[in-house]
Prior knowledge:
By secondary structure, this protein is an alpha+beta fold. Helices cover about 30% and strands about 35% of the residues. The protein has helices at about 45-65, 100-105, 135-140, 145-165, 210-215, 220-230; strands at about 5-10, 15-20, 25-30, 30-35, 40, 70-75, 80, 85, 90-95, 110-120, 130, 170-180, 180-185, 185-190, 200. Strand 6 (about 70-75) and strand 7 (about 80) form a beta hairpin. The mean pLDDT is about 100.
Amino acid sequence: MERRELLYKGKAKSVYYTDDADKLILHYLNDTSAFDGEKIEKLDRKGEVNNKFSAFIMQKLEEAGVPTHHEGLLSADEAVVKKMEMFPIECVVRNIAAGSVCKRLGIEEGIDLSPPTFEFFLKNDALHDPMINEYHIRTFGWADDEAVEKMKELTFKVNDTLTKLFADAGLLLVDYKLEFGRYKGEIYLGDEFTPDGCRLWDAETRKKLDKDRFRQGLGGVVEAYEEVAGRLGVDLS
Ligand code: TMP
Ligand code: ASP
């Protein structure tokens, strides 16, 4: 597989065309951003850790019957994925209250959410990724009804699989964000699944082991990601 010109540079990944019109290369960067790009730093090893972490999770999800864009690792910090048309939408499931839902609805951090709750956000940094609902998605044509149903179904299926996977490693999957796209007519999970886009707490101590360490200036960001990877059995060599 040959890397061709840059298609898009995101905050934490660059996306390249390849010699195969159906495939793209994701290059995971050390760049770490929070608050819609307001706070940015380079953190050693993060690109490689996240590349290998996401590949591991995508494989687990495939085994559980969730179709993903992941094709394989190309190098320590690059992966090959299907070239999809992405929906400009973020799907968030919350098992425990944290982050924006606490601020928005005055919910105490750490409360179990039963049943887990689901939110859609518009992917738009300039607007600070506003929360949207299914009527917005329909009216503004961001996705059709069938795709909306599929995204919800797959996002909850991911929850079933990953809450167990993380629980077996002594971790609580507090919440996470997924992005989906369409490839040859079918819907697949895209983007990444890494501690940049989810919240993970130690099940005993509730220590934060995700990007909240960066957002809140707690330090030990990549070390926390490596600890999670180690507990899951992700090969970081
Ligand atoms: P929130 O509490 O800020 O709404 O975020 C919920 C979860 O989704 C959290 O794990 C972080 C993740 N997330 C992203 O990774 N990127 C985003 O743009 C948003 C809105 C959330
Ligand atoms: N991923 C978004 C950003 O970098 C939001 C966040 O994670 O805080 O700005």
